[in-house]
């Protein structure tokens, strides 16, 4: 019994290591507005710590199938937390080094541009995502991730060349209320590592790719065929019936040309008969 438990635990550990291979060290992950979840990469998202404290949890997105996301991870983009004012999460840090903040979003309500727009700010100081319009980025019901690489050095937050002193071993990430509806977030995770260590969403299909899905006529292939068909039709119209011509029975009848001869002979016979009697 003990050996079975040991092997079972070993399989779980190996599976976890296999699925998380290539990721940096995950130091924080939250499924905003939802329950705990382990994604396809082995990242464990904790239940939202703001439940019952700040803002509103919503699973309105569960009526949609979210694009760009495998079926097992739909919930990360279907549940969300929003608030009628600025709100945020405190993220623990693990010393100096490079980090990546990944913010997951999906617009599940609005169907137009410029309806929900808000900023994301780190450490109450540095705007890391300005004027985010999720629908404007990807449309409705489609996953969108924001990747924010940052560095911690001597209690200083460094993002995109901007510096901000830290007051503790945590950094606050705020979703700032603007003039266009309420700020929101679907899920968050942070790794200690580089941007290359973060799994990315598949790219959005380009318009030309969508257009290529519609079958179009191929001039190089169809044009010769159409010319051949036209040539065949013209040849059919000009073509003479195959085989020898049917003889014209009137053309072969010489009776009409011999009629005067027969008349002359018929007239000469009585004359000859009379002369013979003399």
UniProtKB/TrEMBL annotation:
Q: Mind naming one GO cellular-component term on file for this protein?
A: endoplasmic reticulum membrane
Where, per UniProt, does this protein localize? Endoplasmic reticulum membrane
Q: How does it sit in the membrane?
A: Single-pass type I membrane protein
Known Pfam families for this protein? Malectin
Species for this entry: Cherax quadricarinatus (Australian red claw crayfish)
The answer to keyword Metal-binding applying to this record is no
Name under which the protein is recorded: Malectin domain-containing protein
Instruction: Report whether Transmembrane helix shows up as a keyword of the record.
Output: yes
Where does the record place Low complexity bias? 220-235
Which family, according to UniProt?
Belongs to the malectin family.
Alphabetized GO MF terms: carbohydrate binding
Which part of the chain is the Malectin domain?
26-188
Identify the stretch(es) annotated as Disordered: 200-252
Q: Any idea which UniProt keywords this protein has?
A: Carbohydrate metabolism, Endoplasmic reticulum, Glycoprotein, Membrane, Signal, Transmembrane, Transmembrane helix
């Amino acid at each position: 019994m003990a050996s079975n438990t040991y092997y079972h635990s070993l399989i779980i550990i190996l599976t976890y290591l296999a699925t998380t291979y290539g990721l940096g060290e995950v130091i924080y992950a939250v499924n905003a507005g939802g329950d705990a979840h382990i994604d396809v990469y082995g990242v464990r998202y904790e239940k939202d710590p703001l439940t019952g404290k700040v803002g509103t949890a919503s699973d309105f997105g569960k009526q949609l199938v979210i694009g760009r996301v495998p079926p097992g991870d739909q919930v990360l983009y279907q549940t969300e937390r929003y608030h009628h004012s600025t709100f945020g999460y405190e993220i623990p840090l693990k010393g100096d080094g490079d980090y990546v903040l990944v913010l997951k979003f999906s617009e599940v309500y609005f169907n137009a541009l410029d309806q929900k727009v808000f900023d994301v700010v780190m450490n109450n100081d540095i705007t890391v995502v300005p004027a985010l319009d999720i629908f404007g980025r990807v449309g409705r019901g489609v996953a969108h991730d924001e990747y924010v690489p940052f560095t911690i050095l001597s209690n200083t937050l460094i993002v995109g060349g901007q510096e901000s002193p830290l007051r503790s071993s945590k950094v606050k990430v705020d979703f700032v209320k603007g003039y266009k509806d309420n700020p929101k977030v679907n899920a968050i995770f942070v790794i200690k590592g580089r941007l290359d260590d973060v799994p990315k969403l598949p790219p959005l299909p380009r318009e030309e790719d969508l257009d290529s899905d519609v079958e179009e006529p191929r001039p190089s292939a169809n044009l010769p065929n159409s010319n051949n068909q036209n040539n065949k039709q013209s040849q059919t119209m000009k073509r003479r019936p195959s085989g020898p011509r049917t003889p014209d029975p009137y053309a072969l009848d010489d009776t009409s040309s011999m009629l005067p001869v027969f008349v002359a002979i018929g007239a000469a016979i009585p004359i000859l008969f009379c002369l013979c009697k003399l």
